[in-house]
Specification:
Layout (H helix, E strand, L loop, with lengths): L9 H25 L12 E2 L1 H11 L1 H22 L4 E12 L7 E16 L3 H68 L4 H36 L8 E2 L17 H11 L1 H21 L5 E13 L6 H7 L2 E9 L7 H67 L5 H36 L12
Parallel strand pairs: 1-4
Antiparallel strand pairs: 2-3, 3-5, 5-6
Length: about 450
């Protein structure tokens, strides 16, 4: 929020008003240029939900926009390949001035014009294969765009999850500080009454100071997580944003879904957009081989023309001569390649090598996809077990702290036992937050690696 400055004296205020007027005029003048900037999206509200973050990222992320532009260029290539089947039409005209010699010095003006058109009837199916190749590349570009959208959604959801995790860690430290301050107040009362040694009070004061330091570090980590998310969304760094926590993001939830590795790999091989894009590129490379082989086949083309002329030295008027000299032609031409210095053979060999490279890329890509799913499967199982262990640890630590406090109140335990029990509880609470975050992340990672992550849903907090 912009704060109003202190009101200056009248001369300074007059100069400031003049400067402000110049700035407003410059801003109004530059407004048409600013309106042309489509690289940023203005956020009307400072409170951003996960769905808002995904929507902003999909509209502003450079990778998605580059992929979208690539799809547009591929569509133009398809259009150009389709237009190659259409006939062309051109008009030509020429004018010349002739000068005679001798005693008569007679000069003349000649005008001629005509229309010509041609169309390829058969070129060894090169135009057909070129169109099919352009269509396959366009479909591959569409799959690349879909994968780019999934990647952006996954990155945003990951940064959002990291922010919510830091906020939860901050909450744990705040609750710990509150409990430590309450314990300090009780110890101060016990110390004044002489029922507890002064050393326990000093130790608790040190524990409160340490907790405050941990709270400062947790608040700093939270703000840095916000900075990362602001950078991912290309937001204005000068504004303050509030990122809402999804209701189901870090809740205990129900039982984790059961996955089977073989089924996950099968789904990934069938659903991954980048794998589908590579399969389409293999088919496009096969079309390139067919295009190169088509260079050995004859080319059949048809042509048609119409022309007329006028010469001022000839008898008859302008339109009469145009009518008398008009003429047209229709023809069919056949071109058979006999010796091309090995150009077709070289082009075919290059196309075959490119096809083999695409096949190798497809094989490696399929292997990478399967291994990514396998790693995610192992990590997901481990994350579920870690969350169960962390919950058990938290429950036991809470009971241990309660028992240590009761023992200390009746004089059967030491303050060191209470301090250690509280530290164990805070550590267990932090472990639960990290385990929940890890489980949510691994579930989103599984959706991303199997290719079923919905860009409209986000994969987290749905």
């Amino acid at each position: 929020m912009n704060r109003l400055p202190r009101i200056p004296s009248r001369p300074v205020r007059t100069a400031a008003l003049a400067a402000a007027a110049l700035l407003v005029a410059a801003a109004v003048t530059a407004r048409p240029l600013a309106a042309q900037d489509t690289t940023r999206v203005r956020v009307a509200d400072d409170t951003i939900t996960l769905q808002d973050a995904i929507r902003i990222a999909l509209s502003q992320n450079s990778t998605v926009r580059f992929a979208r532009n690539g799809v547009a260029l591929d569509s133009l290539s398809v259009r150009a390949a389709r237009n190659a089947f259409l006939p062309n039409l051109s008009a030509s005209t020429s004018t010349s001035r002739g000068f005679g010699s001798g005693s008569q010095q007679q000069s003349s003006t000649a005008v001629s014009g005509g229309l010509s058109s041609g169309v390829t009837l058969y070129d060894g199916r090169q135009n057909v294969n070129t169109l099919r190749q352009a269509q396959l590349n366009a479909r591959a570009g569409g799959q690349d765009l879909e994968r780019a959208r999934q990647t952006v959604v996954f990155n945003v959801a990951t940064d959002y999850l990291a922010l919510i995790t830091q906020q939860e860690q901050l909450r744990v430290q705040q609750e710990n500080l509150t409990a430590q301050e309450q314990e300090l107040a009780q110890l101060e009362a016990f110390t004044r009454q002489g029922t507890r040694p002064i050393g326990d009070l000093y130790q608790q004061q040190a524990a409160v100071a340490q907790t405050r330091l941990a709270l400062v570090n947790a608040r700093r980590a939270t703000e840095l997580a916000k900075v990362d998310l602001i950078q991912e969304l290309v937001l204005d760094p000068r504004r303050t944003y509030v990122f809402a926590t999804p209701a189901t993001l870090l809740s205990n939830g129900g039982a984790a879904p059961t996955f089977h590795l073989d089924s996950l790999v099968t789904v990934a091989l069938a659903q991954r957009s980048d794998l589908q894009a590579q399969q389409l590129r293999v088919q496009a490379a096969e079309r390139e081989v067919a295009i190169a082989r088509g260079g050995r086949l004859p080319v059949v083309s048809a042509s048609a023309g119409y022309s007329s002329a006028y010469n001022s030295a000839a008898d008859g008027g302008f339109f009469t001569q145009l009518d008398q000299r008009r003429g047209g032609s229709i023809g069919v031409g056949v071109s058979v390649p006999i010796l091309d210095r090995g150009a077709v053979s070289i082009a075919t060999q290059r196309a075959r090598i490119a096809l083999e490279n695409e096949l190798l890329t497809l094989r490696d890509q399929g292997q990478i996809v399967a291994l990514e799913v396998r790693r995610a499967y192992v990590d997901l199982l481990a994350a579920g077990e870690q969350l169960a262990a962390a919950n058990a640890q938290q429950t036991a630590a809470a009971l241990a702290l309660r028992a240590a406090q009761e023992r200390y109140r009746v004089g059967l335990g030491t303050f060191v036992e209470v301090t250690l029990a509280r530290a164990t509880l805070v550590q267990a609470q932090s472990a639960v937050v990290s385990a929940r975050s890890s489980l949510s992340f691994q579930q989103a990672l599984m959706s991303y690696y199997t290719g079923v992550l919905d860009p409209a849903g986000g994969g987290l907090g749905r």
